[in-house]
Amino acid sequence: MMGATQHIAARVARLEAAGDGILRLVLVPAGGECFPAWEPGAHVDLILPGTGRDGEPLIRQYSLCGDPADLTEYRFGILREPDGRGGSAWIHDRLQVGDEIAVSAPRNHFPFTPGEKTLFIAGGIGITPVLPMAHRAQAEGRDWQLIVAARNRGRLPFLAELAALPQDRIRCHCDDEAGMLDLPKLLSFLGAQTTVYSCGPGPLLDALQKLNEGAPWQLRIERFSAAPQAPASANRPFDVICRASGKRLHVPADMSLLQVLRQAGIKVESSCRDGVCGTCETRVLAGTPDHRDSVLSAEEREEGDYMMVCVSRACGDVLELDI
Ligand code: FES
Fold first, then answer.
1. Which one of 75, 133, 157, 264 is CB 3.0 to 4.6 Å from 19, fit for a cystine?
2. Atom of ligand 1 nearest to the CA of 309
3. Which parts of the sequence belong to the FAD-binding FR-type domain (predicted)?
């Protein structure tokens, strides 16, 4: 079985406009084989040549938005992010059809479990993980609705892909025409049988999480950027025991666990270093993690079996990791 850290050579088959500042990127396996299987909600790392503005390798996470049954290609939506770390700009400005890059095997921290009723809410490019979910819901004859919100019509992404879905289940909302989406009103009608799946900008997801407090409906979200975290002054030192490496290390308040592990020569895969991508997920053998990531669900946090070592710390004095 292919591990999540193995890389696969891929060739750019198509690169075309899919909305204002949005590219549709289609990769095919460079060796002519099929890509690894994936499920709606999954993402992969794109490993791009060179380094970003921060001097770090250009490894970026993008949701798979094509058809999980077609493993001859991986399809993505790439929004140019002027204030980003340089990955999307590199793809927009330098990547060309025929180029080869590498991709990781798929990971899924936003799995879709169809329930009685599903409301998808996609903010802009947040449509990418939601598209395969909507197709899955339709194929299984589920009761679903999709709201796609964007600043204006030009920013509504993947209109061609949306056109392939039943239009009576889709509502496109443009802020410049209809004002901001009235989430309290929209969600006030939902009951316990509905699960809301949402991906989009932080303020949209923050608002949904707030409205979900005490509400009967369920909420599943995926973030592009980190959720608000405890201030750095809340950090406290702790020790980490690395069982596989046979080391005990001290993590001072002003360093992350990932920094300490790297300094000690312990290899941990990482990418965003912001608690968003899930690349640095590490198994916890003992101790209670102080979870500060935006990846794990409330249930996964409660179980305490895994943690993101780039941002999360320890509740007590010692953590033991399977590393
Ligand atoms: S490196 Fe992305 S979650 Fe830790």
1. 157
2. 4
3. 5-113
Task: Using DSSP bridges, classify how beta strands 194-200 and 170-174 pair: parallel, antiparallel or unpaired.
Answer: unpaired
Task: Give the contacts of 21 (CB within 8 A, at least 6 positions apart).
Answer: 79, 80, 92, 155
**Alpha-carbon gap, residue 285 to 306, rounded angstroms:** 9
Q: Where are the domains of the chain?
A: 7-104, 117-223, 232-321
Quick one: 7-104 is in which CATH superfamily? Translation factors (2.40.30.10)
Q: Report whether residue 278 contacts ligand 1, using a CB cutoff of 6 Å.
A: yes
- Is the beta carbon of 130 within 6 A of some atom in ligand 1? no
**Regarding the domain delimited by 232-321, which CATH topology (the fold level of the hierarchy) does it fall under?**
Ubiquitin-like (UB roll) (3.10.20)
**Cα 92 to ligand 1 centroid, rounded to whole Å:** 24
Give residue-wise pLDDT tens across range 256-308.
999 999 999 998 888 888 898 888 999 999 999 999 998 998 889 999 999 99
Residue 314: beta bridge partners?
A: 289
Give dist(CA 76, CA 63) in Å, integer.
6
For residue range 106-161, list pLDDT tens digits in order: 999 999 999 899 999 999 999 999 999 999 999 999 999 999 999 999 889 999 99
Ligand 1 proximity of 280 Cβ (cutoff 6 Å)? yes
10 CB near ligand 1 (under 6 Å): no
